[in-house]
Amino acid sequence: MDNLTHSLVGALIGQAGLKRRTGLAMPALIIGANLPDIDASCVLLGDMQHLALRRGLTHGPIAWVMLPLVLASALWWFDRWQERRGKRPKGRAPVHFGWLYALSLIACLTHPALDWLNSYGIRLLEPFSHRWFYGDVLFIIDVWLWLGLGFATWLSLRREKRGGEWRRPARVAIAGALAYIGVNAGITAVAERRSQMGEPYLPGQVAIANPPPLAFWRRDIVVGQPADWWARNPDTGAIGPITNQPCGWPDVDSLRRTRPDLDAFLFWSRASFAERAPDGSILIRDARYYSPLSSGRFTVALPEARCVQPPAAG
Questions:
Q1: How far is the C-alpha of 102 from the C-alpha of 100, rounded, in Å?
Q2: Considering Cα of 117, then 125, then 264, then 272, what sign does the dihedral take?
Q3: Do 51 and 145 belong together in one domain?
Q4: 118 and 172 part of one domain
Q5: 199, 213, 251, 256: most buried, per Cβ within 10 A?
Q6: 67 pLDDT exceeds 90?
Q7: Is the peptide bond before 127 cis (omega within 30 degrees of 0)?
Q8: What value does the mean pLDDT take over residues 62-91?
């Protein structure tokens, strides 16, 4: 999910009452909820190369333990540093390292849990396994979650400032968010089941129910071969058309050895396909992100490869 959603979740956990456990609890919760996204710096490696590194090592089991430890240590040191300089705020509660670590850990664990919910994917077992996991439940930026969580955070803080019951809005919002996720999981399950009963679907194919932005009750269905299909069927010469421009599949193995961006893209991609560009070269895309708003960010151009129309059947 996006970082605003992660931050609101961390803030609501604190407003639910846990921020009273130790000083600097809210920084531990909000920063901890975003900490696995330190891998965003991988974008400096290139437009496509970073895809192979995102949502991997910093979202896996080792990071779940180590990142909260680093954060708790940094916050504990910061508190001591302020105290030595006489800059420590008088109203700050005593800082307990154990609680700092526990809150950082709870917040950090919410991050991969939320990231799993969308079709972008997450490698939950990295570095022990490179397998991608997908929830297909929520769009990566869910405006409805923003509104619900954001309003609850504002209301809780407002009530706290006025001396009222401030924990209840946060707790209700967390329960409501979990219910909203459950409803969306049901919508996805129904959409995928219906797609498998439809005309385009063939036995052995994969159906992806891709949540669109805003219209959470809808699903964009992508149907195709599983990711390892080409490796298990090396003699197949052409991909089924996803557009009206089918292409002969290029020699992917040789291309991947000379094109690190293509290798990274295919490692990340869940629904890759080839498309003929107007000049006859080949574009490699992902069917999850084929809309005009996102396709440009998830496309690898192969000007050195040519698209050969597959022979007509019969």
A1: 6
A2: negative
A3: yes
A4: yes
A5: 256
A6: yes
A7: yes
A8: 95
